């Protein structure tokens, strides 16, 4: 028993020492990312700006967990959603996509903005993309005409495009199904950003066409009952919930870093 107690005490002391070391860092640049002078990408896409940042490491852990979810049938197409608005789903999708693209195996990654009501991927990337998924599903452009890149190797994007009058019909159409099948043949991993589950049915419709849905939950804000209801709605739509991602977590880090978590 004495040995176990000593081991636990040593582990606790090591943990405290690590936190104290972080708190003593005076150079913010070691932990807080800086915007590139010529980049319009939102600074909260931290995996883009600093692959070695403390917070980027958390996205790499998420990447590892997601990609090792199933050994028998690896995940290839994943939807990202949330129960309600403003939980951080789009930023999570963006950071996860960049983290996967940065893998040593250099996989081909595609991020699709399937939020046809208020898509934000292009905005966060700081680009003006006139065409997107809505145009593809209305047969106005070819998928290849809607693909675009920023300076991240192996990472491709499709914006939401102009807001259509019938997003549900477009997302549930045969054209959407054929589009995803085509993209499966061209990319190793596909992440699909979708609207929140509670407000509209879009996430369930898209989720049923993917290998599963990652649910983003904002800690300290989203009520347990709302998350439970969102999960029920996804299940009813035959969408598999892969897991939940907590955002807005405050670590034991200096105050100036909290706003980036």
Task: Write structural notes for this entry.
The two termini are 39 Å apart. The protein has a single domain, classed as Rossmann fold (3-Layer(aba) Sandwich). The protein has helices spanning 2-24, 46-49, 54-67, 89-101, 121-125, 133-137, 143-146, 167-171, 174-186, 202-207, 224-236, and strands spanning 77-82, 109-113, 147-148, 155-158, 189-193, 213-218, 241-247. It has eleven helices and seven strands. With 261 residues, the protein is an alpha/beta fold. The chain has a seven-stranded mixed sheet, sandwiched between helices. Helix 3 (54-67) packs across helix 4. Mean pLDDT is 84; it is low at 11-37 and 251-261. A hairpin with a 6-residue loop joins strand 3 and strand 4 (155-158).
What labels describe this entry?
single chain, 261 residues, alpha/beta, Rossmann fold, seven-stranded mixed sheet
User: Mean of residue pLDDT?
Assistant: 84
Poorly predicted sequence stretches spanning 5 or more consecutive residues: 11-37, 251-261
CATH architecture: 3-Layer(aba) Sandwich
Shape: globular
Helical percentage: 40-55%
DSSP strand count: 7
Major sheet size, sense and barrel closure: 7 strands, mixed
Report the CATH superfamily: P-loop containing nucleotide triphosphate hydrolases
Class in CATH?
A: Alpha Beta
Strand order, main sheet: write it out: 3-4-2-5-1-6-7
Topology overview:
Elements: H1 2-24, H2 46-49, H3 54-67, E1 77-82, H4 89-101, E2 109-113, H5 121-125, H6 133-137, H7 143-146, E3 147-148, E4 155-158, H8 167-171, H9 174-186, E5 189-193, H10 202-207, E6 213-218, H11 224-236, E7 241-247
Parallel strand pairs: 1-5, 1-6, 2-4, 2-5, 6-7
Antiparallel strand pairs: 3-4
Helix pairs in contact: 3-4
